[in-house]
Write a structure and sequence with these properties.
The protein is an alpha+beta fold. It folds into two domains: about 1-30 and about 200-230; about 60-175, no CATH class. The chain has four helices and seven strands, in the order H-H-E-E-E-E-E-E-H-E-H. The relative contact order is 0.19.
Length: about 230
């Protein structure tokens, strides 16, 4: 019994320490992301061209000049903003070098009467300037099977979409911001701040340490305290 208790306490205690280490790593990552947000904006010449470079630029400010490709606009379904369901409006921005970057332009509510209806989002022509934050491509949601290549989609794969539109896409996306002034397109841009879920690891650590303490308490009660009480009785 003593050996089993010591082994169990050792395992659960080590798991608790591991979760604290993970929380410390996440805090360092969160501090790095917060610091990136205050760096000078990047331009298209500095924008990452490989996935490894893109990961180091996530959540940095960016200021790009290019031309929208409105014919390739896609509405990503089942996306929420401020707790409301709707669409993320995504449009490629063609850069001066000829390749493009996927811009998450903002959010619009869906039409619950006609679920296949999407709003007409104004898209300015000619050269435009877009300010935003570099971000990973839009998150993938669960789907039973890949949908058809229509304007409304559940997910968007960069490699597949690049072949579809016949244009090279940078391995990232940009979350457009209302800067220097709100765009007159009716899109909401209340993007959530990047977070790395530190509190989850703190909670797991507490659970493991609590289990370790419980094992110690049960051993002391059943193997030490309770037998003495019986003998005195």
């Amino acid at each position: 019994m003593l050996l089993a208790t010591v082994l169990g306490m050792g395992i659960t205690g080590r798991l608790g320490v591991w979760q604290l280490d993970r929380a410390a790593q996440k805090r360092a990552l969160q501090a790095s992301l917060d610091q990136r947000g205050h760096l000078p904006p990047l331009d298209d010449a500095s924008l990452a061209t490989t996935p490894a470079e893109a990961g180091a630029q996530h959540y940095r400010p960016v200021r790009l000049q290019g031309e929208w490709r409105p014919a390739a606009t896609v509405f990503l379904d089942n996306r929420q903003m401020d707790g409301r369901p709707g669409f993320f409006v995504v449009t490629p921005l063609v850069l001066p070098g000829g390749d493009a970057v996927l811009v998450q332009r903002g959010w619009v509510p869906r039409d619950f009467v006609d679920r296949s209806r999407v709003p007409d989002v104004p898209t300015p022509g000619g050269r435009v300037e877009v300010q935003g934050l570099i971000a990973p491509p839009p998150a993938r949601l669960f789907e039973f099977a890949p949908g058809e290549a229509t304007r409304i989609r559940q997910n968007l794969d960069l490699a597949t979409f690049s072949q579809e539109i016949g244009m090279r896409l940078r391995p990232l996306s940009v979350q457009q911001l209302d800067a220097p002034a709100p765009a007159k397109d009716g899109l909401a841009r209340h993007w959530p701040a990047p977070a790395v879920d530190i509190h989850k690891h703190d909670g797991y650590a507490f659970q493991w340490f609590a289990m370790c303490a419980l094992m110690a308490g049960l051993y002391v009660w059943f193997q030490l305290v309770r037998p003495r009480l019986r003998r005195r009785a």
